[in-house]
């Protein structure tokens, strides 16, 4: 059984991205767990490539103008890397299944885990609820890419999330990192929120096309 490398998004998306990419490219049996807080938490909440559109952070006080790096899709492009995106607060069964599949896969694997942070500006007691809203809005799609399914003649890309049922703002405006811009510059906040929603819609359409069928409610047998 292979051990796990555990790191944050600042490492995986930014300062350590080259090393991570190299490890995934080797084909070696290594498991990587990324705790994605979407910001450089250890330096007081600096913007990183994981910071989403419209969110504020240090060096992005006016709201981030561009989209978040899609690390899952980047890893999937290798074709032989097990990739999963999980959120325990939304679907603990899918999280457990992804961990088990990653452990069993005889090659590189990476799991991106939604991780709430004090820099989000939320009541941390409600972190799991916010995770669930992220999935309901389509912002954080639950997915698994398992190359072994290809050998069985199946699509290796599995979209575990149901289709979005709420707007992005219904999730985002529970967090200070979004609402602060709404207070200081409402016009810019509205503009960036619209861009963020468009990016979510585009990414969701991409993932749904990759899955080959409409996403359904997830009910694994574990």
Put the structure in a nutshell.
The protein has 222 residues and is an alpha/beta fold. The protein has helices spanning 9-15, 17-25, 71-76, 92-104, 127-136, 148-151, 168-172, 176-184, 186-211, and strands spanning 4-8, 31-36, 82-86, 109-114, 143-145, 157-159. The protein is built from 9 helices and 6 strands, in the order βααβαβαβαβαβααα.
Ordered list of secondary-structure elements with their pairings:
Blueprint (H helix, E strand, L loop, with lengths): L3 E5 H7 L1 H9 L5 E6 L34 H6 L5 E5 L5 H13 L4 E6 L12 H10 L6 E3 L2 H4 L5 E3 L8 H5 L3 H9 L1 H26 L11
Parallel strand pairs: 1-2, 2-4, 3-4
Antiparallel strand pairs: 3-5, 5-6
What strand order characterises the main sheet?
1-2-4-3-5-6
Q: In which range does the helix fraction lie? A: 40-55%
Low-pLDDT parts are 214-222
Mean pLDDT: 92
Number of strands: 6
Distance between the termini: 20 Å
Secondary-structure element string: EHHEHEHEHEHEHHH
CATH classification class: Alpha Beta
Explain this structure to me?
The chain is α/β, with parallel strands linked by helices and 222 residues long. It has a single domain, classed as 3-Layer(aba) Sandwich (Rossmann fold). The chain is 40% helix and 13% strand. The protein has 9 helices and 6 strands; from the N terminus they run E-H-H-E-H-E-H-E-H-E-H-E-H-H-H. It has helices spanning 9-15, 17-25, 71-76, 92-104, 127-136, 148-151, 168-172, 176-184, 186-211; strands at residues 4-8, 31-36, 82-86, 109-114, 143-145, 157-159. A 6-stranded mixed sheet has the order 1-2-4-3-5-6. Strand 3, helix 4 (92-104) and strand 4 (109-114) form a beta-alpha-beta unit. Helix 8 packs antiparallel against helix 9. It starts with a strand and ends in an 11-residue tail after the last helix. Residues 214-222 have low confidence and may be disordered.
